[in-house]
Amino acid sequence: MIAQKNYALARQQWLTTKANLWKQFPVNSRLAQAEIRAVWLDRGTIVKAGSEKELAKIFDRLAKSGINTVFFETVNAGYTIYPSQVAPQANPLIRGWDPLAAGVKLAHARGMELHAWVWVFAAGNQMHNQLINAHPNYPGPVLAANPDWANYDHQGKTIPTGQTKPFYDPANPELRQYLLKLYEEIVTRYQVDGVQLDYIRYPFQDPQAGRSYGYGKAARAQFQQLHGVDPVNISPSQRDLWQKWTAFRTEQIDSFVTQVTQQLRKKRPDLIFSVAVFPLPEIERIQKLQQNWEVWARRGDIDLIVPMTYAQDTSRFQRLAQPWIASRKLGSTLLLPGIRLLSLPNVGAFDQLQLIRDLPVSGYALFAAENFNHDLEKIFTNTQGQVSSRTNEPIPHRQPFKAAAVRYTALQGEWQLVLQNDQLQISTATISDFNQQVKIVQGALNQLAVSPSAANLIAARATLTRFQSQFQIWMRQQATDNPYQVKAWENRLATIERLLRYGERRAEWR
C-alpha cells in the first residue's frame, strides 16, 4: 500500500493491527520478576486523601498492584508535608495529621518501602500558589524568609521566562546548610527507607538564545573571586570563560549531591538515594541544566538513577531510555526508567513496562499516583500483584543478591518451558551441557544469596561471566530464528550481572 502511495489505508490497517495486538496482551497472569516497582505519590493525592484512613486506601491499592517502592512527596515548593521544626512552614493544606508519619507506617505494614521525595533547588511554584490563594509571584516560604538565597536569570528575574518556579542559589552556603538540616530532620525523625532528590539542577536555559540562569549573590561573588570577573558580564561567545562559568554551576550541584548523601549516610547507613533526572544528552544537559548525573553515579553517591523518560508511545520511550540503559558511565548504580501515566492508554503504559522487562534494567517508576486509575490497577494486580507465596520477594535495591538469584530462577523457567515445547533451536548434544551450566550458575547465585561474602561473589560472578560467553554460542541458531527473544534473555543476564556489581558496592560483609 505504501509503495502504491495509499497512505491513508496503510495507516488504517496499521492502527487496526495495533489495536488487535493490544487486545491480545496477556494481562490475566503474573508476568513480573523480582524488580523495583515504584510510583511517585504526589502532594496533590496526599492532600486530597486528608487523613490516614483515606491514605490507607491508596496504599492498599498500590500494594495490591504489586508496587513495592513509594516516592512520597515530602518537600514541595518550599513546604514540608509534615510538621517541621526546621522549615518555616508546613503545607497549609495539611491540617490535623502528619502524612509522612502515616505514609511510613502504612508502607511498612504492607511490605513496601517509602522514600522521601524532596524538591532540592526549586523554591516555589506559581501553580501551588493558586491552590493556597497566595500571590502568583510568592517565592515560597523559605525564600520569603531568606531573600538572599534567591537565584536569578541574566535579566535579574527569579522565575525564568515561560517557567513557573523560582530557584535557590546552590552556591549559597547558608541555603545548603538549611537543606542539609531539613533532610537530616526527615531521616532521623521518620524511618523512611530512602531519599529521592528532585529538581537537583538549575532551571532550563538556552545560552545560545541568550537565556541563562545562576546569578545569585553568592554564586557571583564566588565566581568573581575565582576568575576575576562577574559572570553577569560574560557570554557564550567568550568560550573559555563561559565554559568555566558552566563548570562552576555544575560543580555546585555535584558537590551538594555528595554532601547530602555522605552526611545522611552517617546518620542512616541503610538509606537508598535516588535522583529524578532529565534524559537529555550529557553535553546538552550540562549546558541547559547543569545536571551531570553520570558523575554522581560513578562516584557511588546515588543508588538509583530515575530518568524521566516520558513518552506517549513505546518506540519513543525506547529511544529516550536506550542510551542510558546502554551507558557504561553509571558505575554500579541501578537505572530505573520513568513512565508517565498522564494521557497514556493503559495498554500503552503496560507495553512500556513490558519493554523495560526485556531490557537490562531492574525495574521502573510510574508518574504519578494521581493518574493510577482502576483499570490500570486491575492489569497490575493480575500481572504483578502480591500473592501469598511471594510476600518475601526481594526488592533489588535492598537485597540485590537475592533478587539476582530469584530473577535467574525465573529465567531458568523460561528456558525449560521453551525446551519442553521444542521451541529452542539447540542441538541435542548441546542441551546436556547447557542444562548442566544453567544449574552451576543457579547454585553459585543461590549460595551468594544465602551467604553473602567476597568469596561467594567472586565465584558467582565468574560462573555467570563464563555462562554469558557460552550463551551466545549456544543460542546462535535461536538468535537467527528469534532474535528478540535471545536479546531479551541476554539482557536479563546482564541485569543479574549489574545486580551483583551493585550488591558488591552495598556489601553486607564489610
Q: Mind explaining what this structure looks like?
A:
It is a single chain. By secondary structure, the chain is α/β, with parallel strands linked by helices. Helix content is 51%, strand content 9%. It has helices at residues 7-23, 43-49, 52-64, 99-109, 126-131, 141-145, 173-189, 217-227, 239-267, 282-288, 293-299, 314-325, 346-357, 374-384, 400-420, 428-450, 454-474, 476-481, 483-505, and strands at residues 36-41, 69-76, 79-80, 113-119, 194-198, 272-277, 304-307, 334-335, 338-340, 363-367. Strands 1, 2, 3, 4, 5, 6, 7, 8, 9 and 10 form a 10-stranded mixed β-sheet that branches. Helix 12 (314-325) links the parallel strand 7 (304-307) and strand 8.
Distance between the termini: 64 Å
Alpha-carbon Rg, integer: 25 Å
SSE ordering: HEHHEEHEHHHEHHEHHEHEEHEHHHHHH
Number of strands: 10
Oligomer: single chain
Give a short overview.
This protein has helices at residues 7-23, 43-49, 52-64, 99-109, 126-131, 141-145, 173-189, 217-227, 239-267, 282-288, 293-299, 314-325, 346-357, 374-384, 400-420, 428-450, 454-474, 476-481, 483-505; strands at 36-41, 69-76, 79-80, 113-119, 194-198, 272-277, 304-307, 334-335, 338-340, 363-367. By secondary structure, the chain is α/β, with parallel strands linked by helices.
Keywords:
510 residues, alpha/beta, 19 helices, 10 strands
Helices and strands, with pairings:
Blueprint: H1 7-23, E1 36-41, H2 43-49, H3 52-64, E2 69-76, E3 79-80, H4 99-109, E4 113-119, H5 126-131, H6 141-145, H7 173-189, E5 194-198, H8 217-227, H9 239-267, E6 272-277, H10 282-288, H11 293-299, E7 304-307, H12 314-325, E8 334-335, E9 338-340, H13 346-357, E10 363-367, H14 374-384, H15 400-420, H16 428-450, H17 454-474, H18 476-481, H19 483-505
Parallel strand pairs: 1-2, 1-10, 2-4, 4-5, 5-6, 6-7, 7-8, 9-10
Antiparallel strand pairs: 2-3
Helix pairs in contact: 3-4, 7-9, 15-16, 15-19, 16-17, 17-19
